[in-house]
Amino acid sequence: MEDVIIFDTTLRDGEQSPGCSMSLEDKIKIAKMLDEAKVDVIEAGFAASNEKDFKAIKEISKVCTYSTVTSLARCNKRDIDLAYEAIKNAKKKRIHVFIATSDIHLRDKLKMSRDQVISKIREMVSYAKSKCDDIEFSLEDATRTDFVFACRAINTAIDAGATTINIPDTVGVMMPFEFAEFIMELKNYSRLGDVCISVHCHNDLGMATANSISAIKCGARQVECTINGIGERAGNTALEEVVATLDTRRKLFQVRSFVDTTMISKLSQAVCDATGSVIQNNKAIVGRNAFLHEAGIHQAGVLNNSLTYEIIDPKKYGIFHDNIVLGIHSGKNAIIDKMRKLGFNPDGYLIDDIVFSIKEYFQYNKEISDEIFRSIILEHKCKIYNKNN
Ligand code: KIV
Ligand code: ZN
What we know:
Elements: E1 2-3, E2 5-8, H1 10-14, H2 24-36, E3 41-45, H3 51-63, E4 68-74, H4 77-87, E5 93-100, H5 103-110, H6 114-131, E6 135-140, H7 147-159, E7 164-169, H8 176-189, E8 196-201, H9 208-217, E9 222-225, H10 239-248, H11 250-253, E10 255-256, H12 264-275, H13 296-304, H14 332-341, H15 351-364, H16 370-388
Helix pairs in contact: 2-3, 2-12, 3-4, 4-6, 6-7, 8-9, 13-14, 15-16
The structure holds 3-methyl-2-oxobutanoic acid and zinc ion (ZN).
């Protein structure tokens, strides 16, 4: 079974998304949690972008004992020097060098020719390598890059010392089958297969996790992702989705990650707290509804055997709340279950009447508290008492 490296960029790409900036203390707290969760690589920031990032990377480098710490750097000496300066005290360190390779980025952003980009890659990857053994090189906007030029850029970076080559779908335009074919072709026509293949997918069309997983099937052995999928625009591949997929479908992929899944719920909450962001209710793994059942038919199944409607054990991801929630679609089974959980013995009650009252309540309300549920049950107890006396 081969290992997949989980590269977390919550503190860099994630933090770059609008409204998601984090305090130094929060970044250190999240990094410590990622380290404890055995995330392989933590991209702690972009050292050259601002002083706060530099400081955060420096502090995070001191506290991580398991994870490799990396900083992003553009292809210039100042960025690489600052990146190295920030990570130099880390137990395990990496410099992540990148340059855009697509024609649109070359023409409208970098104002460079292809030959100039190739020279920059050669010079700057070699320079980074002279400072640090572990070098990752990213071809920004790889999926919109001319194929032959992408192969040239990859080979140049490998010759200059890169040990990981990252293929980002920067604008999130790929389809899973298309991205898989792209990775396979790059392996066939460049030396990509000689190094660790990494992917970094954005979620503009909602394909980030699917694309990353397709790439793993084609030999990618590093996935760049963020907690809760935060990141530029529609976000990045969600760490929790990749880890859960590889674990749940292990036989299919024959690869594993070492991430401690029981930390995922806490990490998700910590990122929400630090960024002030909220997670959509139906978000896989960490959304409020990911393991909740309100519909009567589903509740009847799950109360007998959770596998009827759940493929994942929520406890494995640090989620321990009750999986049954009462609502207008709930039936007898769930109401009896709730009565038992609140200490009532359902045998002494006219359950059909209680179901009727609860459904009535949900005509005007979306949720029911334990107190109100209890008061409805007690009301029925009184009715039975009054009838019998
Ligand atoms: O989306 C992207 O291309 C990036 C690179 C810098 C890796 O974030
Ligand atoms: Zn990105």
